[in-house]
């Protein structure tokens, strides 16, 4: 598990715990890299790999190494996450954690996974990652304030 980026908006230990909770919940072993990128870098990645010339919140790439083990790259754009968090009325850190879960599931090859996101966020809470109230999809609130509900 690797966490990269010029400025990492979440503690690396938290990102590792979230990815680990998803891997345990999926009963999978994989090498997952999570990289936080700026708006321009995400726009370039999205244009090159998805054909959309605009930044997006998260991109994931699923691969396998020479031995056939799962390897995945997850790219998260905090700039887009801030906008989405504001629109949803949730903390930015909560949105970033949701994107790490979402991206990790895609990196594992999961395409339809709304129920899995909820299940993995619940598992992450049980791993000691503090949670927000369950009114919004069970998402994690990373102990950076009190739940507004």
What labels describe this entry?
alpha/beta, Collagenase (Catalytic Domain), four-stranded mixed sheet, 5 helices
Explain the overall architecture.
The protein is an alpha/beta fold and 149 residues long. Helices cover 45% and strands 16% of the residues. It contains five helices and four strands. It has a four-stranded mixed β-sheet, with helices on both faces. The radius of gyration is 15 Å and the shape is globular. The model is unreliable at 130-149 (pLDDT under 50).
Give the SSE layout.
Layout: E1 2-4, H1 12-26, E2 30-36, H2 39-50, E3 58-64, E4 70-76, H3 78-88, H4 92-107, H5 114-126
Helix pairs in contact: 1-4, 1-5, 3-4, 4-5
Q: Please, how many helices?
A: 5
Q: How far apart are the first and last residues' alpha carbons, in Å?
A: 34 Å
Helix content: 40-55%
Strand order of the largest sheet: 1-2-4-3
Mean pLDDT: 79
- Classified by CATH, the class is Alpha Beta
The structural domain count equals 1
Overall number of strands: 4
CATH T-level topology: Collagenase (Catalytic Domain)
Beta-strand proportion = 15-25%
CATH superfamily: Metalloproteases ("zincins"), catalytic domain
Query: Largest sheet, described in full?
Result: 4 strands, mixed
Rg? 15 Å
Uncertain parts: 130-149
Order of helices and strands: EHEHEEHHH
What does the overall shape look like?
A: globular
Kindly name the structural category.
alpha/beta
Q: What is the CATH architecture term?
A: 3-Layer(aba) Sandwich
State the gist of this model.
The protein contains five helices and four strands; from the N terminus they run E-H-E-H-E-E-H-H-H. It has helices at 12-26, 39-50, 78-88, 92-107, 114-126; strands spanning 2-4, 30-36, 58-64, 70-76.
């Amino acid at each position: 598990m690797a966490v990269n980026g010029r400025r990492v908006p979440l503690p690396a230990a938290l990102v590792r715990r979230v990815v680990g909770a998803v891997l345990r919940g999926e009963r999978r072993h994989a090498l997952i890299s999570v990289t936080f990128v700026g708006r321009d870098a995400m726009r370039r990645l999205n244009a090159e790999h998805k054909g959309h010339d605009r930044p997006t919140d998260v991109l994931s790439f699923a691969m396998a190494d020479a031995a056939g083990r799962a390897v995945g790259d997850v790219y998260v754009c905090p700039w887009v996450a801030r906008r989405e968090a504001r629109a949803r009325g949730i903390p930015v850190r909560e949105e970033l954690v949701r994107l790490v879960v979402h991206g990790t599931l895609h990196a594992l090859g999961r395409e339809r996974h709304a129920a899995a996101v909820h299940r993995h966020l619940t598992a992450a809470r049980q791993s000691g990652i503090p949670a927000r109230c369950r009114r919004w999809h069970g998402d994690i609130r990373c102990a950076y304030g009190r739940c507004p509900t």
